[in-house]
Amino acid sequence: MANNDKKAKKVVVIYAPPVMISHLVPLVELGELVAAHGLEVTIVLGGLTDDAAAATSSSIAEGAATAHPAGLSFHRLPYVTRPRDVPAHDYVLQTFALARASNSDLREFLRAASPSQVSALVLDFFCGCAVDVGAELGIPTYFFFTSSISGLAEMLYHPVIHEQTTALRLRGHGGDDHVHAPGNPPIPLRDLPAAYADCLSLFLGVAEQMCKSHGLIVNSFRSLEPRATDAIVNGLCTPPGCRTPPLHCIGPLLKLGEAGTNRHECLAWLDAQPEASVVFLCFGTMGRFNMEQTRQVARGLERSGQRFMWVLRRPPDQDDGKLNADPDLDALLPDGFLARTKDKGLVVKSWAPQREVLAHAAVGGFVTHCGWSSVLEAIMGGVPMLAWPMYAEQRMNKVFLVEGMQLAVVMEGYDKEMVGDEEVATKVRWLMESDGGRELRERARAARRRAKEALSDCGESRTSLLELVEQWKRN
């Protein structure tokens, strides 16, 4: 970014959290989109502790840089020392701590680049502590929220929720109590992220940091979440005495595979299936079941009688230190399952091109962990969802999807020890065969139409992005 040929150009700096793939991918997509509109974009990777921690982030960065070499670059801040007082297993607390440890290096990087050259600093919420760096250097600073508008409304309102909810009840996530945030359906306490209790002061700090920013950018679109959007814009979600920054809804930020790339074999299998006949099961990069839960899912799929494609990852109780190893299907699945279901089902080991799968005409339902990127991919494919949340903010997303947007129904038992095979069979059959499932599918297709309208030339998301880009060009 400090090269002589770039000194006269305005730059947008995007500050990404360390090794948080679900956040890094949409941040890179935002960078690609902004660069395509004529601004220089530098994505800064901070909070990395060693070469191994940097490897995953670098692979995403290199892939994006190769596809879009003009206007998009990456900068890795110096490695930092992992704080000794942060538990090794608490990745949320570690991410906040490592981002804070990189603040001084970010400051020096921005100073070397000349703050007058930087028209905007865009932060992921894990990097919110850098809002003070932007203020110190006089750089307009924005937050990019990688989840839903409803989730943003809840986060902004969380200081008020905290005042209304005792720390003990919040930590216990107990009973049938609910929290209420403007623009959102009631959220059961048990569906709040566990990290809210473990890292409460940090999340309360994020809400305060967001209110200090020049704007909030969110990976969603207004017509998908109108109540939450109106609540934020009307200042109902920020605590008393705090300003509400401008809201910029620019999503969905999604990109299908480049034309001409090698096509995954699972897509050829889908080509041979009838339209909207296949249930797709996929639970993200961290979503894994133990052996018994895996067998319950298998038995449920077989009992349902429906066509399915299932992306199956190695169970945590079979790791043997090999986190990325493919599962042993013969050892993992019920005896004879693959042979009995070979005419109707496909089990894919570890990974499938989810965006392309959900965009395929043969897919008629999606069993999902409710990660926001997965939700947007389902919406863009017009695919209804069965919600099986697992970790992080996914339980809140489940509430928004089921009670708010009405694009999903819940897989009962997600919050218990086991989802039984009968529940899997019943819900999959309901989704694919019942009148209720057909109504859900129609709502999903209507959401797809609204998403495409939002991204069209005069659509709400495209207009919001162009306004933001023009503002940054003038800064």
From TrEMBL:
<dbReference type="InterPro" id="IPR002213">
    <property type="entry name" value="UDP_glucos_trans"/>
</dbReference>
<dbReference type="InterPro" id="IPR035595">
    <property type="entry name" value="UDP_glycos_trans_CS"/>
</dbReference>
<protein>
    <recommendedName>
        <fullName>Glycosyltransferase</fullName>
        <ecNumber>2.4.1.-</ecNumber>
    </recommendedName>
</protein>
<keyword id="KW-0328">Glycosyltransferase</keyword>
<dbReference type="Pfam" id="PF00201">
    <property type="entry name" value="UDPGT"/>
</dbReference>
<keyword id="KW-0808">Transferase</keyword>
<comment type="similarity">
    <text>Belongs to the UDP-glycosyltransferase family.</text>
</comment>
<dbReference type="GO" id="GO:0035251">
    <property type="term" value="F:UDP-glucosyltransferase activity"/>
</dbReference>
<dbReference type="InterPro" id="IPR050481">
    <property type="entry name" value="UDP-glycosyltransf_plant"/>
</dbReference>
